[in-house]
Design brief:
- The chain is an alpha/beta fold and 432 residues long.
- It folds into 3 domains: 210 residues, Alpha-Beta Barrel (TIM Barrel); 85 residues, Phosphoribosyl-AMP cyclohydrolase (Ubiquitin-like (UB roll)), CATH 3.10.20.810; 90 residues, Orthogonal Bundle (Helix Hairpins).
- The chain has 13 helices and 16 strands.
- Strands 1, 2, 3, 4, 5, 6, 7, 8, 9 and 10 form a 10-stranded mixed β-sheet that branches.
- The longest helix has 21 residues.
Length: 432
């Protein structure tokens, strides 16, 4: 199977600003989160964030920015730039980075590669080569534990060098970061080189989905949305349309229902933005084109009869034209029931605990724990851990379930005390 080339927008971060250099010009953006979300929504395979901080204070601020970005997008983040000890690697990873690069021009960082790989896993550690001369030691970096090589070359890299590097490192990462003038075109001369991951200089107006279509047209393999079933195999209604049920990919909430014709379907695949056919206006419409409430495709699935599409999307803002999050907000009839959806149960219990924290209730055990403070909460959590261990030795599973439930409740009290949400926990688990 042919290995695809990845498009990775890159920018530096210093003093709370994104720094982008292209064609020898330098651009600044104070809204790093919006920039990162734009790239993520529009087809970036990863983000390359270079920590350019020059002080410990700015370094901590950059860590906070990376954490904020990782909380808002699900595109992998590669970062590094100010690594002086293992603790710095840990901070980047705990902030949400998929991997951390170590600059091999700093002798201490070469020694740190093995230590970081042993502690966090080789897949979390990349070697950063500031220039082509360091390529002679790629084998050494790989043996120490670097799983990928990032090459920052300030001058044009010849096809011979690219080929040599790709032979040494089967999963070579070519990074064009904020200090490197140039465009993606610099790397389009070598589409036959296996294992090369292309990196795009960050431009706010750049759209990775558009770039991928251009690369695809040139025969360069990239990750695009490809249909597994031809349009001719869909069962359409009398108007030649197929209904689309749209769900939020995070919450699984049904957002809306719309229709597609063939042109809308193909446009959706090409752009990654949900595009529909308006039956009232008899024309295509991109969801969010006027409101800014775009829907970015996460997956498209076809039902067993080939007559309905289920779209999982990342929704920007509300989905309904009324301003409601979902179009399905009018309850016609409802029977009281107990939800068994695990995450909903956790969120419901957590909501009650948070409400107790904000609105204390006399006689509430939860408020008793909050009043006693963090030491009491931790003491109870430790006791419940012990109860689980003891119960696990009992052949009756009911006791284990009871003790685990107690533990989870006290854990949620701790989460509320430290303002940690279930969404943050599930995102961290998903990253792992």
């Amino acid at each position: 199977m042919e290995k695809v080339k990845k498009l990775i927008p890159s920018f530096g971060c210093r003093e709370g600003q994104a720094i982008i250099r292209d064609y020898g010009l330098e651009y600044y953006s104070n809204d790093i989160l919006t920039l990162a979300k734009y790239y993520s929504d529009n087809g970036a395979d990863s983000l390359f964030v270079h920590d350019l901080s020059q002080t410990d204070e700015d370094h901590e601020r950059t860590i906070g920015i990376i954490k904020e970005i990782s909380g808002e997008i699900d595109t992998p983040i590669i970062t590094g730039g100010r690594v002086k000890r293992l603790e710095d690697v840990k901070k980047y990873l705990y902030a949400g980075a998929e991997a951390v690069f170590l600059d091999v021009s700093i002798p201490e960082n070469v020694d740190l590669i093995k230590e970081a790989a042993d502690r966090f896993g080789t897949e979390k550690v990349y070697a950063y080569l500031p220039e082509i001369s360091y390529a002679d030691r790629i084998d050494e970096y790989a043996q120490l534990g670097a799983s990928k090589i990032i090459l920052d070359e300030k001058h044009s890299i010849g096809d011979r060098d690219l080929y040599r590097l790709s032979q040494v490192s089967q999963d070579l990462l070519l990074a064009c970061d904020d200090d490197v003038p140039g465009t993606i075109a610099s790397y389009l001369r070598v589409p036959s080189v296996e294992g090369v991951i292309l990196t795009v200089p960050g431009q706010e107006e750049g759209n990775c989905m558009n770039m991928k279509q251009e690369l695809k047209a040139r025969g360069i393999p990239v990750a695009t949305l490809e249909t597994a079933v031809d349009w001719s195999d869909f069962k359409l209604n009398s108007d030649g349309l197929i209904p689309v049920v749209v769900q939020d990919y995070r919450t699984m909430e049904v957002l809306m229902v719309a229709y597609m014709n063939q042109e809308a379907y193909e446009k959706t695949l090409q752009t990654g933005r949900m595009t529909y056919y308006s039956r009232s206006r008899c024309k295509l419409w991109v969801k969010g084109e006027t409101s800014g409430h775009f829907q970015y495709v996460k997956s498209l699935k076809l039902d067993c009869d080939n007559d309905t599409i289920l779209a999982m999307v990342a929704q920007v803002g509300p989905a309904c034209h009324t301003g409601a999050k979902s179009c399905f907000f009018q309850t016609l009839a409802e029977k009281e029931y107990r939800s068994s959806n695990p995450l909903k149960v956790f969120e419901d219990v957590y909501a009650v605990i948070q409400d107790r924290k904000l609105h204390p209730k006399e006689g509430s055990y939860t408020n008793y724990l909050f009043d006693k403070g963090i030491d009491k909460i931790l003491k109870k959590l430790g006791e419940e851990c012990t109860e689980i261990v003891i119960a696990a030795k009992n052949p009756n599973p009911e006791e284990v379930k009871y003790e685990i439930s107690d533990f989870l409740y006290h854990m949620m009290v701790l989460m509320a005390q430290r303002d940690i949400s279930w969404e943050e926990i599930t995102e961290e688990l998903a990253r792992r």
